[in-house]
């Protein structure tokens, strides 16, 4: 993956592609839900009628054109949403472009025996209704879109209003890539001015048999009440456990790099750390040495007032995805350079532990031993069953943590993004559908199983 990023960034340093003229026609962008779904239905009918090799060619060209435009996608997302870091958004987009599974994951299964042949294949649903977030707007469109189209579906997106511009740009780019190799336009469509009402209309539209949502608890609940098959990716609060056997240098680097990645707006990013007392201070010292800023006493109280609501029950959305430097300036704490992470020694009940902040701020909790650390991690994860990680050399402790936390993603001795395939093996997904039990979604998730049986024939051995 590092080699891919290096090659693409080298290309981009020679000059990024110019953005499309904002006044030019955008393929796939429609004023109404009805128009967007209708156009996607026509595209779906065309898609299932063309050869599978053409579908593979379409997916390959989407990857190619998106990689060529990755710098623009990252810059536009940052400019429009104000969240995260451009350099990290480039990495996220490249990850989904290159490691989202395509048609190759939809291999047929055959059973033969005395009674003949049974063939099982994956079939499309039709037009998928997809709700996307502002935290990972283009990443989710590319990741969902590649998987859905690989399965023979078209998709209509209701994108987050705070990222509607870059989302429309991304949808247009994808449709142009399809048309460029002889595929249909409108394989992905979106609403020009998305709202809560348009999201509801899309989820309940008679032309969308499958609903896929990536977002908070509210949109997950709405999707589950749509009366349709639902694939829902909800919130997470990923805990990290560090025990006394851990490689502390590795743990410090992993936590620092992971919790600071794109200013912690990815749902899988490290959100709180449970560290055994014996190694607590050495671990924090190592993280500080990497460039993190550690707050104490009144500094923590000032930060609380800045990034939490007055009741301390919610985050102040104005600070989601902002850089530590902005927060430190606001609370009058000196710093050097461009720090990527703020760390705080806080009790377990503190909001920096219990809330999914989506900021580069992480609470560290002192624990008596590994057993207490694991128990507290399970409690802080709140039963989302999303993501968790642990640094340890003790196989028994790693085993206990994996079973106890029961998450879709569990990472051992690495940054959490390794669980998405960034610095770790396996494919990627930006829709982690823990609430509906689908885990990391792929083209298989967005297809339905069909069986064809021929009785008495075609067993050839």
Report on this structure:
This protein folds into two domains: 2-234 and 438-453, Aldehyde Dehydrogenase, Chain A, domain 1, CATH 3.40.605; 239-426, Aldehyde Dehydrogenase, Chain A, domain 2 (3-Layer(aba) Sandwich), CATH 3.40.309. With 461 residues, the chain is α/β, with parallel strands linked by helices. The chain is built from 16 helices and 18 strands. The strands form four sheets. A seven-stranded parallel beta sheet has the order 11-12-13-10-9-14-15, with helices on both faces. Helix 3 crosses helix 7 (164-180).
Which percent range describes the beta-strand content? 15-25%
Largest sheet: 7 strands, parallel
| CATH homologous superfamily caption of the largest domain | Aldehyde Dehydrogenase, Chain A, domain 1
Report, as a whole number of angstroms, the end-to-end distance: 43 Å
Q: Which of globular, elongated, flat, extended, rod-shaped describes the shape?
A: globular
Q: Can you tell me the CATH topology of the largest domain?
A: Aldehyde Dehydrogenase, Chain A, domain 1
The helix count comes to 16
How many structural units, i.e. domains? 2
CATH level-two architecture of the largest domain: 3-Layer(aba) Sandwich
* Major beta sheet, strand line-up: 11-12-13-10-9-14-15
Mean pLDDT: 94
Helix content: 40-55%
* Beta strands, count: 18
Supply the helix-strand structural class: alpha/beta
Q: From the alpha carbons, calculate the radius of gyration and give it in angstroms.
A: 23 Å
Secondary structure layout:
Layout: H1 2-13, E1 29-30, H2 33-49, H3 52-68, H4 70-81, H5 86-99, E2 109-113, E3 116-124, E4 127-131, H6 137-150, E5 154-158, H7 164-180, E6 188-191, H8 196-203, E7 210-214, H9 217-224, E8 229-233, E9 239-242, H10 248-260, E10 272-276, H11 277-289, E11 293-295, H12 298-307, H13 324-330, E12 342-345, H14 351-354, E13 361-367, H15 370-380, E14 387-391, H16 395-405, E15 409-412, E16 432-433, E17 439-440, E18 447-455
